[in-house]
């Protein structure tokens, strides 16, 4: 199973604590609505493996240095 098989993942990576150790993950998908975001999150391999204690959804607007602007 590929993380970006649908081509919607724009960027991702670990969030790090002050000690440099991972304390979470950030995944940014381009989706039509929250329902699509929730479906993608549910299909994430880490989510399926039960590795996330919690998941949050937030809308975000890429305004600086967006790929389309390059």
Brief write-up:
This protein has 70 residues and is of the alpha+beta class. The chain contains two helices and two strands.
List keywords for this structure.
70 residues; two-stranded antiparallel sheet; 2 helices; alpha+beta
Characterize the structure shown.
By secondary structure, the protein is α+β, with helices and mostly antiparallel strands. Helix content is 19%, strand content 23%. It contains two helices and two strands; from the N terminus they run ββαα. The chain has a two-stranded antiparallel sheet with strand order 1-2. A hairpin with a 5-residue loop joins strand 1 and strand 2. The radius of gyration is 13 Å and the shape is globular. It starts with 8 loop residues before the first strand and ends in a 22-residue tail after the last helix. The relative contact order is 0.16. The mean pLDDT is 87.
């Amino acid at each position: 199973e590929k993380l970006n098989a649908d081509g919607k993942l724009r960027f991702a990576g670990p969030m790090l604590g002050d000690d440099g150790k991972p304390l979470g993950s950030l995944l940014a998908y381009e989706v039509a609505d929250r329902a699509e975001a929730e479906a993608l999150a549910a299909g994430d391999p880490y989510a399926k493996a039960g590795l996330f204690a919690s998941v949050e959804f937030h809308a975000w607007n890429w305004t600086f240095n967006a790929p389309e602007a390059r």
